[in-house]
């Protein structure tokens, strides 16, 4: 049903567009008039059926017309057919060895710029036909001759063109006729007055496919022949793959398989060359027309080739009923739509608009292949500049100077680095933060020379590296990775006591003073102490040192995110867990700021509604989370070895506040005892690990189940759960095995390390 409703009408539109384009490319290429039709049929049927894209339409490409014309002039037409065949074999080989995936590396700015440039070229050429004239050989010539063309008298040709454009503009605004694609409707409506006024521009199809000739081996220098084969294969292949990449951005159907597409193009060119046709390639215009006409599957592409074959063989005279002026107006309209400034605006934030406009201009002024090559070169140049960009910031605070270096530290950054370091006064205490993912030898030599000179002048340099230790490894002579490195995550989650702070002054020339894992990142030569000292000599606690580390490393990265959520919060979960210092909610759930609304207390207890003694703290958190923040999930997370549960099993410490609070856990204790006393009751499945069978950890898991029941005693929670707007879940964190378990119908089961879809 979808084929009849979408693909058949779309194939007719593409068919009507492809016929005049194929004929025009044949003339421009100096080939027999039927050669373009042969390529259109084979491109539609063969490449369409075998290709990797469901919407791409292949056929003779305007971008290859000048190349084919030169080959025909140099080798003759039949030898050109053999070059097409050999180029197809080369494309087939490249597709089989799966090299087409390299096209995925093409910048979207180049693709969109190519589409825009092709659209301008098409619009400029077709506007001459709409005005009753003939297009010139290049876009620039079309621009230069356009004023004279506009000034001439055109008669009925302009009427047909304006009528076609008018139908295209208003057709989609008529809801009752949207079943018929706008391009098809425009052509049919324009044919009526054209037939009545007798202003048809007919296409001469005399001779048909009988004019085809078989290929012959080209004569001449083998180097020229090989170069011609490579040129046709690469340009046709690149144009096809670029169009294939662009087609994926035009529709929401299955994504293209580039290797399969290149293989199909090779098969199509082998057959087209053997049958006397033009080279085949994926064509932007016909592909765009296919998508805009409503195509949903490859049936549209295949059928458009079938229609060309059937109509040329049996009903060739009917093609002449559609006026060329109407087809030209349709192509002009499509060409204008291909210049999508929305793509340019999307590229603005990534500073890629120059690539877009340079590619577009290159395609218009020089040619398709040349414009794409220029765009790719510019994209590569800008990418290189971005990859080697570095930021050096120098500032003074509290008597210490901080130098922060971010980016890739290469020889290109040495002048800027040395200029910034020269601003640091002699003898100053310096914190040098290297937030870099690469450092070459030139940058290291400049940095090391400055450091040694600064220390000889009485200053100190405290080096701290956020990424892999490029500087440290260079000092010690350790071989570093050849590639860029990712930011290390081996510090922030460690307890303070396990982090290596300031190291021995002799390191890295000697072994580090600690024999354990080297979790630290810095070369700290200012002092051997692991603590920051206050003015009065007392050591600051780890809390302040941790805050200092946050301000230095994490805050600059998080500041844009936190600034955006500084006015309000929108968490999706209320996370109720124990106050135990070993349970870090954001760590075990890999969540960040704004994800969890957390309520912590001893034993992760949820007092029942109207409980005695009452607890307004937990109740307030629940009410605010579900009533104001409108969270979708409430999670109760228990853990192994919970001290509150141990107190319930044994003697409660003589602490009045704690003793009163643990009254909210008596229901969990009663529930646990019922499991122990009843021989028929099954124990709740324990998590993997040695601690799974202890009485304490069984109570910890049962406590989670009981607190979920306690949540349902709150009317607001119960109403939302019953209506399906709120979900209650239970988690259990086994500290010894570092495993998170989730409560389901079978009890607590470990969360798998990989999803079922991986």
UniProtKB/TrEMBL annotation:
Keywords: Lyase, Membrane, Metal-binding, Transmembrane, Transmembrane helix, Zinc. The keyword NADP does not apply. Pfam families: Pro_CA, Sulfate_transp. The keyword Cell membrane does not apply. GO terms for molecular function: carbonate dehydratase activity; zinc ion binding. InterPro entries: Carbonic_anhydrase, Carbonic_anhydrase_CS, Carbonic_anhydrase_sf, SLC26A/SulP_dom, SLC26A/SulP_fam. This is carbonic anhydrase. It comes from Planotetraspora mira. The lineage of its organism: Bacteria, Bacillati, Actinomycetota, Actinomycetes, Streptosporangiales.
């Amino acid at each position: 049903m979808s084929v009849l409703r979408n693909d058949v009408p779309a194939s007719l539109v593409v068919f009507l567009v492809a016929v005049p384009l194929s004929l025009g490319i044949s003339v421009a290429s100096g080939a027999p008039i039927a050669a373009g039709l042969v390529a259109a049929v084979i491109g539609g049927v063969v490449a369409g059926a075998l290709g990797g894209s469901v919407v791409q339409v292949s056929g003779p490409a305007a971008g290859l017309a000048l190349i084919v014309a030169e080959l025909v002039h140099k080798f003759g037409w039949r030898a050109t057919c053999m070059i097409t065949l050999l180029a197809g074999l080369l494309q087939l080989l490249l597709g089989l060895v799966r090299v087409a995936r390299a096209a995925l590396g093409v910048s979207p700015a180049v693709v969109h710029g190519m589409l825009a440039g092709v659209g301008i070229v098409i619009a400029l050429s077709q506007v001459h036909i709409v005005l009753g004239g003939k297009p010139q050989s290049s876009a620039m010539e079309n621009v230069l001759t356009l004023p004279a063309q506009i000034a001439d008298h055109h008669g009925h040709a302009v009427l047909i063109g304006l009528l076609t454009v008018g139908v295209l503009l208003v057709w989609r605004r008529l809801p009752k006729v949207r079943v018929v694609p706008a391009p098809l409707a425009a052509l049919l409506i324009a044919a009526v007055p054209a037939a009545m006024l007798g202003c048809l521009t007919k296409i001469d199809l005399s001779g048909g496919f009988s004019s085809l000739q078989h290929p012959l081996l080209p004569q001449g220098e083998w180097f020229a022949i090989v170069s011609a084969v490579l040129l046709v294969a690469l340009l046709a292949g690149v144009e096809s793959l670029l169009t294939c990449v662009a087609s994926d951005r035009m529709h929401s159907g299955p994504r293209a398989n580039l290797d399969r597409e290149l293989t199909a193009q090779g098969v199509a060119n082998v057959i087209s060359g053997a049958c006397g046709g033009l080279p085949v390639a994926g064509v932007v215009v016909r592909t765009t027309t296919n998508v805009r006409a409503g195509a949903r599957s490859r049936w549209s592409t295949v059928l458009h080739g079938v229609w060309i074959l059937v109509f040329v063989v049996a009903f060739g005279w009917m093609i002449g009923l559609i006026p060329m002026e109407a087809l030209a107006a349709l192509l002009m309209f499509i060409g204008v739509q291909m210049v999508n400034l929305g793509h340019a605006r999307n590229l603005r934030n990534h500073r890629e608009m120059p690539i877009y406009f340079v590619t577009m201009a290159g395609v218009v002024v020089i040619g398709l292949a040349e414009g794409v090559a220029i765009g790719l070169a510019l994209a590569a140049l800008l990418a290189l500049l971005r990859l080697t960009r570095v930021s050096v910031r120098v500032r003074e605070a509290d008597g210490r100077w901080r130098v922060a270096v971010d980016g890739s530290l290469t020889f290109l950054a040495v002048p800027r680095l040395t200029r910034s370091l020269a601003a640091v006064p002699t003898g100053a205490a310096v914190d040098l933060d290297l937030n870099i993912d690469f450092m070459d030898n030139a940058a290291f030599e400049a940095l090391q020379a400055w450091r040694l000179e600064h220390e000889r002048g009485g200053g100190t340099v405290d080096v701290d590296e956020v990424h892999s230790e490029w500087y440290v490894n260079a000092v010690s002579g350790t071989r570093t990775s050849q590639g860029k490195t990712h930011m290390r995550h081996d510090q922030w989650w460690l307890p303070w006591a396990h982090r290596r702070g300031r190291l021995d002054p002799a390191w890295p020339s000697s072994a580090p003073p600690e024999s354990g894992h080297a979790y630290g990142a810095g070369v700290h030569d200012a002092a051997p102490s692991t603590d920051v000292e206050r003015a009065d000599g007392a050591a600051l606690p780890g809390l302040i040192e941790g805050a200092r580390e946050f301000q230095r490393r994490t805050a600059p990265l998080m500041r844009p995110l936190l600034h955006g959520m500084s006015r309000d919060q929108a968490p999706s979960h209320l996370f109720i867990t124990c106050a135990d210092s070993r349970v870090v909610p954001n760590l075990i759930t890999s969540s960040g700021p704004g994800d969890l609304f957390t309520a912590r207390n001893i034993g992760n207890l949820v007092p029942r509604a109207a409980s005695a003694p009452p607890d307004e703290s937990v109740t307030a958190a629940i009410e605010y989370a579900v009533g104001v923040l409108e969270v979708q999930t409430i999670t109760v997370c228990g853990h192994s070895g919970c001290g509150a549960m141990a107190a319930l099993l044994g003697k409660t410490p003589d602490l009045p506040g704690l003793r009163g609070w643990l009254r909210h856990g008596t229901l969990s204790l009663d529930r646990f005892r019922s499991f122990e006393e009843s021989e028929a009751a099954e124990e709740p499945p324990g998590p993997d690990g040695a601690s799974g069978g202890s009485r304490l950890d069984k109570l910890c898991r049962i406590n989670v189940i009981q607190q979920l029941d306690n949540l349902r005693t709150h009317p607001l929670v119960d109403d939302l759960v019953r209506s399906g707007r709120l979900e209650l879940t239970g988690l259990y964190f086994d500290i010894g095995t570092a495993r998170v378990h989730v409560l389901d119908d079978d009890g607590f089961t470990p969360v798998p390390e990989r999803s079922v879809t991986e």
